[in-house]
Amino acid sequence: MPRKAINLTCKVEYLSILDETGKLDKKLDPSIPDDLLLRLYRAMLLARRFDERMLVLQRQGKIGTFAPIKGQEAQVGAAAVLEPGDWLVPSFREMPSELWRGKSMESVLFTYGGYNEGGYIPEGINNLPVSIPVGSQTLHAVGLGYAMKYRGDKSVAMVFFGDGATSEGDFHEAMNFAAVFRTPTVFMCQNNHWAISVPRSRQSHSKTLAQKALAYDMPGIQLDGNDVLAVYAGAKEAVDRARSGGGPTLIELVTYRMSMHTTADDPKKYRSEKEVEEWEKRDPIVRFEKYLRGRNLLTDAGVEEMDEDVRNEVREAEERWLEQIGKGVDPLDMFDHAYAEMPPSLRAQKEELERELSEKKR
Amino acid sequence: MPKINMVQAINLALSQEMEKDDSVVVLGEDVGVDGGVFRVTDGLIDRFGPERVIDTPLAESGIAGFSIGMALYGLKPVCEMQFSGFSYFAMHQMESHAARLRWRSGGRFSVPMVLRAPYGGGVRALEHHSESREAYWAHTPGLKTVIPSSPRNARALLVSAIRDPDPVIFYEPKALYRAFREDVPDEEETLPIGKSQIVREGKDVTLISYGASMRPVLEAASELSARHGIEAEVIDLLTVSPMDDELFTGSARKTGRVVVVHEAPRSFGPGAEIVARLVEKSFLFLEAPVRRVTGFDIVIPLYQRETEYLPGPERILKAVRETLDF
User: Fold this and answer.
1) Domain positions in chain B
2) What would you measure as the largest C-alpha separation in chain A, in angstroms?
3) Given this chain, do its domains B3-183 and B197-325 carry the same CATH topology?
4) ipTM of the modeled complex
5) Cβ A119–B104 below 8 Å, yes or no?
6) Residue pLDDT, tens place only, B271-312
């Protein structure tokens, strides 16, 4: 038998629309309306300020370990493409997207402050709660997609995960299921170059993460993850395709974790300052701001006013959160929502704790 | 009432629930065209089509996580693990997400799925095809672990499991799949999850078991009665977790003597929990130490040695006699 070649074409596109100086590639302009451009800018700025504030709160001991998102704010470009009926399936570095989709800042503070309430997503918001085991949530977005298709709903599930997640089995199982069943799922990989201390180069031998789509015969694309216009344009293409029955897409957002993995680690131990400085030049907010100023959509006064405005919004959210936690929590409600109906053996344990607590009070 | 075996009874539960409720979907490896390696899902694909009876890629974690996503959207997936020995891939999804999403979201989301898996020895199978690891699931807060012991209760419990708003692990004793037939009514029948049953009344000793071990237990109870005039009260747990201890602790207060039987390894097995609850709730009524007749703390051997591993009537009878003579 001869050796025969099966020709597979693998061409991974890299899309960047705004360069580091904020200059637009006109041919690629996604023509986003001005008011949406400003909303995106404001959402990125809000996420940055909130992130900075949480770092302060963590250092002051007011919240526990938290995972900063600094540098990854352009992800809102992807969330902005979704309709309210679509589903956002986040991991733990999607605060900007979650806020865009209606989650409150208090809710984020609840989670990092150690309150279960952070996961209590209000009715009407189709965000799943944060999923911490890396990569495991990818499968949920595929099941959601299958169910949407089964019900004849023209909705889409967008799942976020990091570069480290592409090493997990669940990611590959999810990609495979999504491709086999052609589910309306958009895989949004935030390649921020570091999985705690392990660099992207040690995570996978592949040149790009987007090329992993080839193995599952689905479209894969790399986007400049620090360019909100590219993120928006690439996500829109994938979401439109999924919505019209064209199946799943893998998107690799090439971005950078400018801060630590969580407040429990020190990146100086494993990466150089120089590398961080290089990426700071590509800051997604600075670049976008330059572009908007260039288009006269933002002025010095406008930037200042908006910054003041988002800082106030963060402060007000923090105040609301403090007021709510000030009321204290009832430890006995830890037993709630374990099951739809509490089994007798669990009820007995709750009563046991109740007695202990009331004895302590006396 | 037609007499059917457990495979047919489970098939009946699935097909009737699918008929009633279009949110019920069946998925797993070979469950469609092939009808499942044990033929449990035989014919379903012809009746309900490939969108509802889904042959999935071979990936247990994938099947479980995919089912979770479907359930979050309001479907009621019934997924099959081809053998419980391969379900450990799925354990992460069940432990980390299926069991917690209701809790994590404060009741906003729920995962009304069923994970079915044939478990246990007695069918002369290869390695990984005969084990009994229900304790893994039973130890996980947020899951329910149900194990039927007859065609009729398998059908009724599976209907309840499908309708349950929380994730249910449904372990099917494969040794009983075709072991005997029973009258199973065609009309709807359910059994409450979380409730055990007294299947034989007696005053001298209490035998507590579930699943595949119910057969040797009932055999031993008949022999005790016929040959020795000893009347054993037999309790079938039906749900391992959350455990219903009301019936068995009550029975222990009456008889004062208890033997617990299961195939699972002894240490940290469901029997350990049963004994703990007996000590907590019936200690002063016990006339003898509680005995456990179980699998040993080893991997279940390949089938030339499994008869000696599995708790059979002889071992049960010996334990009962020692308990009575104490």
Assistant:
1) 3-183, 197-325
2) 87
3) yes
4) 0.97
5) yes
6) 999 999 999 999 999 999 999 999 999 999 999 999 999 999
